[in-house]
Protein: Pyruvate, phosphate dikinase
Amino acid sequence: GQWVYRFGDGSAEGRADMKELLGGKGANLAEMAALGLPVPPGFTITTEVCTYYYDHDRQYPGSLRADVDGTLKAVETSVGAAFGDTDNPLLVSVRSGARVSMPGMMDTVLNLGLNDETVQGLARQSGDDRFAWDSYRRFIQMYGDVVLGVDHHHFEELIEIHKEERGQDLDTELQAEDWKILAGRFKDKVAEVLGHPFPQDVGEQLWGAIGAVFGSWRIDRAKTYRRLHAIPEDWGTAVNVQAMVFGNMGDTSATGVAFTRNPATGEHAIYGEYLINAQGEDVVAGIRTPQHLTKAARENANHAGGNAGPSMEESMPDVFSQLSDVFVRLETHYRDMQDIEFTVQRGKLWMLQTRSGKRTAKAALKIAVDLASEGLIDEKTAVTRVEPAALDQLLHPTLDPDAPRDLLTRGLPASPGAASGSVVFDADEAERRAKAGDRVILCRVETSPEDIHGMHAAEGVLTARGGMTSHAAVVARGMGRPCVSGAGQIRIDAKAGVMTCGGRQIAEGDVITLDGSSGEVFVGEVKTLQPELAGDFATLMRWADTYRRLRVRTNADTPPDSKTAREFGAEGIGLCRTEHMFFDDNRIVAVRQMILADDRAGREEALAKLLPMQRDDFEGIFREMSGLPVTIRLLDPPLHEFLPREDSEFAEVAAAMGVDAKALKDRAEDLSEFNPMLGHRGCRLGITYPEIYEMQARAIFEAAIAVTTGDGDPVEPEIMIPLVATEKELSILRGHVEAVAEAVFREKGTSVPYKVGTMIELPRAAICADRIAGAADFFSFGTNDLTQTTIGISRDDASRFLDPYVKMDIFPQDPFVSLDVDGVGTLVSMGADKGRAVKPDLKIGICGEHGGDPASITFCEGLGLDYVSCSPFRVPIARLAAAQAAI
Ligand code: PEP
Ligand code: MG
Structure:
């Protein structure tokens, strides 16, 4: 193969689409050169050489040396200088460049080709002794550190000692003579540490640097970075060798970095910084404060009370205007916002790098829509340009990035958005204070369904325990409340009204701020910014919808949540969890009465109280959804969530039932389970207490008829049976639902169409889906329970070990957040196939939390499912992810 690719002088052997072979930097340097932009000439040694190098015990391919020598000759001709020449030396940079950028992970050597003789040539050529000796000492320092392994602190120490001797404070005060002395001391230090002298042979220098760059692919920090960013080990890096240009040759020289659009806001204006008389790393190192590129940015900064020096537009107007032209050409060519590095050497502009610039979600959105309006990309491409997960940042309030903050601790980013408020430890108190107009943050060890009203009243929720699908997390996401869960360092003493964390105390009433997008908790109030949902957001979502095949529904249990979801574009309800309606203050007593009754009569008495309330709930939801499909899941309570705990709660229920509190406690004791999530829940409850599901079915049909025959759109309810493991369970319960339907239709003298389906959330259900499909009109994969039961990890307790599991790459990600495709995904795929084999038009969706996760949505698109259902605030994310999956 070809090991070396040349670029420069208006042509190149490589192209932008050869990133696998040339790395990102090399491919884009080639592309810019071929476009005729001013790129210092050079060449790229391919990533295949890196692979060869590691496959062959760190040897290079046989012809590499000859290829490099030959190409270097071409560079010499182009520059008009020679490598190692004592009169007119060519200097080069040697840089790594993998397929994707790995900032700061691998090594770079600048000014290579300097030695005791060529430094004199450089001094004569440049007419600047100080520049030449400064360059030489920088080279010894960098090469010594990166290639020879002589730690940079040795060199810095020598500089400090020298400055002290001379009574100087700043590097800029050092003169040619000083740098010359230091270059000598640097070489002595290298010889002292290594036992042999600093290499004077420029060929040896070059191969040393190439070897160091290839070697840096396998250093620890690069390996760690790759692991964190899922970059394969076998990609390898390319090496770019390029003629040096100097931004530090006096006041007509400069170096800078720029974005062609503002990467924070997306605004269509050049955004960047430059430094006169400096080398690239000076801008990054922050030793001197860089100046703005444009006059407008400089004026803005000064209006805001800054003290910015002249912009490049003002100090170097000709070069600036060339640079602006280059920006336009690059954007038109790449059809995206670019992140650029450039150098001006004595008034001449050189481009050193371009790549697609990283940007905030807000900027990504604006840039995608703007580029489409400017005709640079089409709408379909614009849809692919915004990361769906990044929309989270846009749908919720965010912390003002400029606001000061005081970090208390970190937990899991359970529900996005930022909120501040006073700490309360009790749901009732949260509600009381909120009614009085306070903004509160509910802080609990963990939440239970009894806390729902408090969570609703609070601005945000903080828990010390619980994972990403813990009760608090699921409910908070559904309500759009920011939530940090599993903040394990926090100790809550609700009775004493304090919580402690890392030696700090927060008392009830103290203000804290949560960032549910990052999992951070701050002491005091941190300023937040409000989301903007019209404009570009609406435009991009409209475009996305034209490419989407999957339907997007929502998990919503109340009319307000349904409303929010519809505003975000939900096309129906995929999961209405009826148990969430049971925690209302007026109902919980009746619900407990139903659970604790010892016989059917007792249960029916309680159910009679619940029926009208459930009917109202469903009517409200049907109306809000105006004829869109609504899937209502019958009761699926792990019973422990409903049982009374406090004496006062037992007393209340006992009074309502007219029984003795002691007897009631015994009954609760009987009902308590070791493993409630695998206990008397889901359809098992409907099988043993048919009257519960019958009441719910009746409420659904009566509500559907009321809305349909009243002023509402016709309703076709979809009744869903949870936690089914066998076809028998489903056919029995289906029979009960059908009987209720007939009875209600007869009573009302009218009927509505309806469906009965099931959740597939147990492995057996997926495995036996063909049999289950016989009794089902639709399937909805409950991937929360399916994950819990397939992997055998508790969704409520997993946070304790999931973090190390993910860090050790046992799981690539939290399987409750992103579907475990190999395991759980295989069951989903099997269930869908088996179901469709029996019923080709079986409607199939997914309603676990994964329904709002982009990678899981891509998987669902691949299976050809009909819809995904997710919490209201994730609906836009799901719409965009589904569109991208279909493109
Ligand atoms: C599920 O198990 O995936 C599901 C959607 O139901 P729940 O989260 O209510 O158990
Ligand atoms: Mg479930």
Residues 254-359 form a domain with the D-amino Acid Aminotransferase; Chain A, domain 1 fold (CATH 3.30.470.20).
